Amino acid sequence: MKNINYLELFPFISQSVKLFDNQNRFLKKIILTGKISALEKAANLFSFTEKTIVTFSELKEELIPLLIHENIKKFTEELRSKAQISIDILIRNLFERTADVGFLATDAVIIDFLNGKESSDRLQKRLIEYTMKYTVYNEIIITDIDGNVKINIHSDNAVHVTSDPIIQNAINTNGYVEQYGHSDLFSSQTKTLMFAQKIVDNNKTIGVLVLCFRFEDEMKRIFHSLINSTEQIYFSDGKEIIASSSGESKELKISRNEFKGDTDYSYRDGKIFVSAKTKGYEGYFGAPWNSISFIDVRKCTKKPPVEDAVSEKCTLDGNIKAIIRKADDVIEDLSDVIINGELIASKERVYVLTPVLDNLRTVSSAILGTIKETVTNLENTIMEGLIYDVQTSAKLAIDIMDRNLYERANDCRWWAITPVFEEELVSTHPDTKRISDVLQYINGLYTVYTNLFIYDSHANIIASSNNPSIIGRKVSGDFITKTLNNQNSQNYFVSNFEQSSFYNDEATYIYNASITSNGKMIGGIGIVFDSTPQFKAILQDSFPSSKNGFGCFIDRKGMIISTTHPVLQPMERIELDDEIMRFNSEKAIHRFIDFQGKRYLVGIALSHGYREYKVQDNYKNDVLSLTFIEY
């Protein structure tokens, strides 16, 4: 362990140490008094009691360090989880941005604008339409190859020319460029996280597209969902603070050298610090940042009793069980001493033993209380850690699901206003190949879809990215009817989670958006989400490590949307009590559940959306996330 005064850090453990020491001294004093009074008649009794005192001392030397270890472990594992979650959630978000900038840089309206074939007014409206759907951006800038700003959408950002190296870096790079720092492209912000990509027409670079990400806004959302009043998180590049959950952490100076590995922690002035680096997502790792979470342990070591601690006992490892058996032996030995002492006193008429035994009975009762309290503290600490694991896992899984599907709602609405689709759908004879080629290009960038298809105003499919056999088929469903009767480009419509012939007769969501021309409905786009591997990966990535069990997403009726259970399958139902099915809190909860002959500790969290998704867009689809840990 590190050079920390743990007894000052955990007052309740210090109190237990004092009780152990006081009772040990009292026990020794009783034995000394007994020896002086009746050693001749009860020598064996006192000899046995002295051995019990040794066992009691050994028990303290084993139980107290274990209690300290479990408390440090609980804090560090919770901090490590929050540090890891915060940076990995951000990386998942930023991965989507790398696809966005790559696709938008090929937008025909942008290319025509840079070639002088499109008006700035139309492009301005189009880019604003883009940010209305992808609300993670607060500025879009397009420059020529010399850094002259040709257009931007932020009305307060008067920028005409830039010397930011991101422009030349983008021109010299095949793919996206990511940069965080101050930029004259958005000088009103202290620092900006930008994604840039060159704009190419006929193999010639004609400009650069820059997307400015709402970094501080996103970090506030991440921090808010993770921390409580005693914890803080910040991001660092090893030299300075990049983002912080509070002003306090801006004053902290922590270098990477303080952490000697992902499993280590740092301690300073009553605070425990844990660092994490991203695990990456789909091969993307972003900037070389690390997330550091910390807690002032002195402010949070007085814990209330854990819910269910009396009725539910936690599963203990062999080492802890052995120590608890030793504690039981001490209590049993002292009880035997008292019983045998009473027999000796009665048989030998050694009445001077009576007050000794009375004192021994008193201290034995006190020792029993101390041991029980210490073991209860140990069990509660372990229980708190398990409860945190399942609640955090369930909440993380549903948050990632919401964030993932937020992107799907954005994608279908943006792709619906692709000029090629409008041009062909208003044509008497739409060019199926031209539309399909565009869909194939999009699908190649966004691999979370198995297929994208376009249908006309009569719901006839006229193009597909990956399955030409569906061309000519009629698509139906309530979500299609709504799509073809919609006039608002901000709306999207989603199928129920159900089996679909567009997904090999497996269950998935199909996101849809309307395609219009001059206010007239001319068709729609359907995007088939690859739900089976995507949802399962979310559940697997969110599940607590080194635990046995499974995770699942279900609807309000108990129908499985996805699960990591080895036997259960999507579309099957699991029976849970009404309290769980009616659960409607923003905070995750836990319950103990008997399921298929096993006892589980279960974390439960409800989908509450992300940004405007499921919050301000009229889309209602309650999903529950459950994490089952064998108990």
What can you see in these coordinates?
The chain is an alpha+beta fold and 631 residues long. Among the domains are: 6-101 and 305-387, no CATH class; 416-529, Beta-Lactamase (2-Layer Sandwich); 532-630, Beta-Lactamase (2-Layer Sandwich). It is 44% helix and 21% strand. The strands form five sheets. The protein has a five-stranded antiparallel β-sheet with strand order 2-1-5-4-3, sandwiched between helices. A hairpin with a 2-residue loop joins strand 4 and strand 5 (204-213). Helix 2 runs antiparallel to helix 7, helix 7 (318-348) packs antiparallel against helix 8 (353-415) and helix 8 (353-415) packs antiparallel against helix 12 (531-542). It starts with 5 loop residues before the first helix and ends with a strand. The relative contact order is 0.10. The mean pLDDT is 89.
Q: By helix and strand content, what is the structural category?
A: alpha+beta
Number of strands: 22
> What is the gyration radius calculated from CA atoms?
33 Å
Largest sheet: 5 strands, antiparallel
Return residue spans where pLDDT drops below 50 for at least 5 consecutive residues. Answer: none
Distance between the termini: 29 Å
Please state how the strands of the largest beta sheet are arranged side by side: 2-1-5-4-3
Secondary structure: helix percent? 40-55%
Tally of alpha and pi helices: 13
Write down the overall mean pLDDT.
89
Tell me the overall shape. Answer: elongated
Strand content: 15-25%
Oligomer: single chain
